[in-house]
Amino acid sequence: MKKVKDFDTEVIFKGTPADVIWKSDVSKIAVNAKLFARKDSDIIFLRNGAFLGAFNDKKEYYLANDEREGLLRKAFKSKKVSENVDIYYINRVVQLENPWGTPSRIPIYDETYDMHSSIGANGTYKFSINNPMKLFSKVQGSQESLTQDSLKAFFRSELNIEIRSELANIFKKNRYSLKDIATITTYEKALSQTLHTALKPLFDDYGVTLHSFYITNISYDEDFLTRMQEAKKDVLVNQVRQNLDQTNRDEFRKDYKMETEREVGIRQAESGKTQDAVLFCVHCGSENIPGSKFCKDCGKELTTKKQGICANCQETLPKGAKFCQHCGEKVS
């Protein structure tokens, strides 16, 4: 940089490729000073904190040449040197990454469970400057000197409340409730895209392009999680009790069925014994009372064998049968 006395006659970018905002150390400049443009950057010229003009990256400029129609002549008036100047190079391509976080928690109410809770969230977003003059008009009053760090801090302060408000609106609009909290991480990508769309006009209003927006973490109310764990325990205990009650009912039904079947079996057995005790005459087929030794109709001796059952094949015989119709055995 050439020096003439104590003022500068040219301004050259001396930052790094990663610099989005770079401020020249020039504070006193000659009327015929030359500004060297930088690719993808705008040059902002201020005097005493007031915006005077901007130059793009199309060509190199003399501050008060005829091509610019004397754009900055008012900065010099009749003087050959202008003091208290600020010159910024603003890169329009390089993106800045900035963290965000909800400044206060978002309340959630579930009508079904009649329970209140809250969540917080944080993440990052990337942006670039598309309109340096609009950005300076928004930020200039709150910043003594604009730097990348101060710009990021400005957006954290100004936009975190807006982000929190938009996130709360999304929860309200979609009616996310307590049942959604357990699986809310599955919505993070969709939430990020929705927030990106909702916040883009706000960034545009600052002369900034919002390229991406991410939610990296959603934090829950620890007290609520404790209460939910207790509620889950109560549900589990009730479920165990219900299972035990069902098991007891099943066991009762099983025992009752077994007891009923046993009693029926006993009655059938007793009935069978009574039937077996009845004697039938094998000669004439007459029925005789238990204990009889001779037939009351033909007088012949009674057998103690069960009437109606073949002694050979154990098949049922009709009354008065003399031979078994199944095996041909003679009925004795």
Question: How does this structure look, described?
Answer:
The protein is of the alpha+beta class. The protein folds into four domains: 3-91, no CATH class; 96-220, Band 7 domain (Tetrahydropterin Synthase, Chain A, 2-Layer Sandwich); 222-276; 278-332, no CATH class. 35% of the residues lie in helices and 25% in strands. It has six helices and 15 strands. The strands form four sheets. Strands 1, 2, 4, 7 and 8 form a five-stranded mixed sheet that branches. The chain has a four-stranded antiparallel sheet with strand order 3-9-5-6, with helices on one face. Strands 10, 11, 12 and 13 form a four-stranded antiparallel sheet that branches. A hairpin with a 2-residue loop joins strand 1 (3-4) and strand 2 (7-11). Helix 3 (148-174) crosses helix 5. The chain is rod-shaped. The protein starts with a strand and ends in a 44-residue tail after the last strand.
